[in-house]
């Protein structure tokens, strides 16, 4: 006697109230949604049938959020890049005048120059040959200057 009572009551109310309102709301939303979007794609409405307009607005909104994620990662790359100087001109942004320049190189005697000079002396080249390293750019240190403001941007040391 008690079993059939609660069993029927539980199934009855739960199924009846949920079904009618959800169906009406879904139908009402569906018919209202496709009508306002048209202002966006004007040509799409003219070419396609009025029935197709319902599917086209959903197509346009879906791909939009995907590409927006990529440009965010590119922004952070502009932090100070470590510029490494060698014995050739370097293209860089001058920190003192803020211009994009190619560095001007000046050679001056460095550790390697003096070591070569000393070793030449030990080998017996004392009659002026030991000064040859001071004329060879490949044995000298390189200073990189900005051609605009003449500021020293960096030095390349051989040793
Ligand atoms: Zn400069």
Please characterize this protein's 3D structure.
With 159 residues, the chain is an alpha+beta fold. The chain has two domains: 4-61, no CATH class; 91-156, no CATH class. The chain contains five helices and five strands. The chain has helices at 4-32, 42-47, 55-61, 70-75, 111-122; strands at 91-93, 100-102, 104-108, 141-145, 152-156. The strands form two sheets. A three-stranded antiparallel beta sheet has the order 3-4-5. The protein has a two-stranded antiparallel sheet with strand order 1-2. The chain is elongated, with a radius of gyration of 39 Å.
| SSE string | HHHHEEEHEE
Mean pLDDT: 71
Task: Assess the beta-strand content as a share of residues.
Answer: 5-15%
Query: Could you give the order of strands across the largest sheet?
Result: 3-4-5
Number of domains: 2
User: Number of DSSP helices?
Assistant: 5
Helix content: 25-40%
Largest sheet: 3 strands, antiparallel
Annotation, overall tally of beta strands: 5
Shape: elongated
Structural class: alpha+beta
Low-confidence stretches: 10-16, 44-49, 51-56
Distance between the first and last residues' Cα = 101 Å
Radius of gyration: 39 Å
Q: What ligands does this structure carry?
A: zinc ion
